Amino acid sequence: MQDAFLFPGQGSQAVGMMKDLMGRAEVADTFREATAVLGYDLRKLVEEGPAEQLNLTLHTQPAMLAAGVATFRAWRALGGAEPAFLAGHSLGEYTALAAAQALELADALVLVRFRAQVMQEAVPEGVGAMAAILGLEDEAVREVCARAAQGEVLEAVNFNSPGQVVIAGHRAAVERGMVLARERGAKRALALPVSVPSHSTLMRGAADRLAERLAQISLQTPRIPVWHNADVAAYDEPQRIRDALARQLYSPVRWVETIRALKARGAARFLECGPGKVLAGLNKRIDDSLATFALTDEAAIHAAL
């Protein structure tokens, strides 16, 4: 039985999210290492908040990365086998690369903090937006974006599950898109509480800056294949990984295709490695026959084992 480990992205964070695993030495050590790199007490922030600070993009991205790596280390320490495949949703792709030992944890933390910074600086506060469109086919959402753009940027950026697509771009265009989506028959069109239009072409400037930083970071061939959001492909060559990470900022997250590709290659179990159950929920909507586990605490790890 081949396992695919999946690492969640921004949005799964919550104060207290690692409380059931923090007593384990490998988990505490991971947060101690992260604190030394970041220069603030990440464990205290995760355990005590406040939520407003944890939800700041500059704090969320390192926190989610550390939590995912710590959970993976707990899995291995408890006797869990090395998986056959790794993938991450957006930010989670960096966690996957750290788990695969392609990136040192310290380098991964510095990278995602820089990624958060350049994303926020690329589009001024209030200019960009994102919204979730529920109940429309992918092509219908693309058509809505094309009609509602009206000279601005509006794109389908997260293909999360059948009937759940996220759009992003200029705020006014997103608002027009939500109205049109409802007119086309969408069950819901929900504005997301973010200011950065992630994975849209408004992020090209941020991607250029990220590419420069990636060129300075040591990258190794992953011990375990890591599937990339932008291409639905895994790479051995460090330069191709750098390129995929940079393009990810302005390319759609092709999650449905990724899960189906992993199943086609023999993945029999899908384990969400990190806080929350967002990816487990998406996977059930992609294919309800998938054996899916969310490793949210030690009891869940033992159940999966």
Write down the overall geometry: globular
Number of DSSP helical runs: 13
How is the main sheet built?
Answer: 6 strands, mixed
* Mean pLDDT across all amino acids: 96
What structural class results from the helix and strand content? alpha/beta
Task: Please give the alpha-carbon distance between the first and last residues.
Answer: 12 Å
Biggest sheet strand order reads: 8-7-2-1-9-10
Radius of gyration: 18 Å
**β-strand number:** 10
Strand content: 15-25%
The helix-strand sequence is: EHHHHEHHEHEEHEHEEHHEHEH
Helix content: 40-55%
Characterise the protein shown here:
The protein is α/β, with parallel strands linked by helices and 305 residues long. Helices cover 48% and strands 17% of the residues. It has helices at residues 25-38, 42-48, 51-54, 57-77, 92-99, 105-122, 138-149, 171-184, 204-214, 238-248, 255-264, 278-286, 298-304; strands spanning 2-7, 85-88, 128-134, 154-161, 164-170, 188-191, 226-228, 233-234, 267-272, 291-294. A 6-stranded mixed sheet has the order 8-7-2-1-9-10, with helices on both faces. It has a 4-stranded antiparallel sheet with strand order 4-5-3-6. Helix 1 packs across helix 6, helix 4 runs parallel beside helix 5 (92-99) and helix 9 runs antiparallel to helix 10.
Question: How do the strands and helices of this protein lay out in sequence?
Answer:
Layout: E1 2-7, H1 25-38, H2 42-48, H3 51-54, H4 57-77, E2 85-88, H5 92-99, H6 105-122, E3 128-134, H7 138-149, E4 154-161, E5 164-170, H8 171-184, E6 188-191, H9 204-214, E7 226-228, E8 233-234, H10 238-248, H11 255-264, E9 267-272, H12 278-286, E10 291-294, H13 298-304
Parallel strand pairs: 1-2, 1-9, 2-7, 9-10
Antiparallel strand pairs: 3-5, 3-6, 4-5, 7-8
Helix pairs in contact: 1-4, 1-6, 4-5, 4-6, 6-9, 7-8, 9-10
